[in-house]
Amino acid sequence: MSKTAAWKFLLPALLLSTSALAAATADVKVGTGVEKYEVVGTTDTFTVTPNTRIYAATKLTGAEVGTVTVVWSKDGKEVSKTELKVPRANYRTHAYRTFRAGDTGAWTAKVVGTDGTELGSTSFQVQVQ
Predict the structure, then answer these.
(1) CB distance 124 to 43 below 8 Å
(2) Which of 36, 38, 112, 126 is the most exposed place for a label (fewest CB within 10 A)?
């Protein structure tokens, strides 16, 4: 077998092994809405009226096909979870939470994979009037 023919078989194997080593990530942003898969109204401090939705939009890179979960935490304690389908490794998706009276505090939206590994998160403050 020539050297060129050997590279023909070796290169795809090298590409597969290096892509398998790449860790999945999630770029997470919060805002007051989502338009064309982009979050709008982004800030790290929200002053809202009761029954206002705040969205956690995420851009997944290298994610495992299946599902991810957005974990909503207030003052360090888990409050709720939203499971989202992931049909391909690079994907944009979002979840929302409705904020009500009593939800004032320090919040975190964390995206975790099926194995519980944190892929990304963001922290923000909410003041419900």
Answers:
(1) yes
(2) 36
